[in-house]
Write a structure and sequence with these properties.
Layout: H1 3-7, H2 11-16, H3 25-29, H4 31-35, H5 40-49, H6 52-59, H7 72-76, H8 83-97, H9 104-107, H10 109-123, H11 141-149, H12 151-157, H13 175-188, H14 190-207, H15 212-221
Helix pairs in contact: 5-8, 10-13, 10-14
Bound molecules: iron/sulfur cluster (2 copies).
The site of one iron/sulfur cluster has 15 residues, from helix 4, helix 7 and helix 8.
Length: 232
């Protein structure tokens, strides 16, 4: 497969990739570059070479998963490139080809898509207190741990309609609306994408000698040294 030609079929790539003069403005404004060992200028530069091996290495790398998709780079590039859009196209291709399981940050796609899309399809919310646990998110702090343990009282005091019929924040989403959401996933390719992520993740879990439960836990919690600028 010619990866550059494949990327060029993606409308995000067409919009975000023009001639790059390697000025580095995108890297200078990029918030991800401040924390991660990440350089959007290099990504655009590699793609620009059209070197198939180099692009394949990029598709299998950690680096394409560091971008926060904030699009600060899009408004600053003097050549009207959008490195963030190029990254989106690279991520899409990496998932389609199953290359995302070759990197630690890419493998995190599995627990994230499972949790967030599961919430959307089952509850109608992207993040929901019923599935957000302190154990999985100790960074949320002890006050939030307490709030989660007393969520019904807390959300009621804050004026939410937590888990009940009718209008209001955190209300129960009717089944017919959840069915509609599922239908949207089906016709837009979302369901197929989730199945693809699951398929390649299962293959990787087998290769790593793990059950899917172990793989989910491991990919969600494990972070090797070397991702961050401070050497962590
Ligand atoms: S700001 Fe634009 S031209 Fe400059 S390095 Fe980034 S992508 Fe290339
Ligand atoms: S979209 Fe990605 S590459 Fe662009 S500035 Fe934001 S984090 Fe950096």
């Amino acid at each position: 497969m010619n990866y550059f030609e494949e990327l060029n079929k993606d409308y995000r790539f067409k919009e975000g990739f023009h001639t790059c003069i390697n000025c580095g403005t995108c890297t200078a404004v990029c918030p991800a570059a401040e924390f991660y060992r990440y350089d959007p200028r290099k990504i655009v530069s590699i793609v620009q070479t059209r070197d198939n091996d180099a692009i394949e290495a990029l598709l299998k790398s950690e680096t394409i998963w560091y971008c926060g998709e904030c699009m600060s780079c899009v408004t600053r590039c003097p050549r009207k490139n959008g490195p963030g859009l190029v990254v989106m196209a690279l991520r899409d291709l990496s998932i389609r080809l199953g290359f995302f399981t070759e990197s630690e940050k890419g493998r995190q796609i599995y627990p994230l898509t499972k949790a967030l899309n599961g919430n959307v399809l089952n509850l109608g919310y992207c993040v929901h207190p019923e599935t957000f646990t302190y154990r999985d998110h100790p960074e949320s702090g002890p006050v939030f741990e307490w709030a989660l343990a007393h969520k019904k009282d807390v959300y009621e005091r804050l004026g939410a309609n937590f888990g009940k019929e009718g209008p209001g924040a955190l209300r129960k989403i009717p089944q017919e609306d959840l069915d509609e959401l599922k239908a949207i996933y089906d016709v837009t390719g979302g369901t197929e994408r989730l199945q693809l992520v699951e398929h390649y993740s299962k293959l990787k879990a087998e290769q790593m000698g793990m059950t899917m439960e172990e793989y989910t836990e491991y990919t969600f919690t494990h972070c090797s040294p070397g991702h961050f600028n401070d050497g962590q």
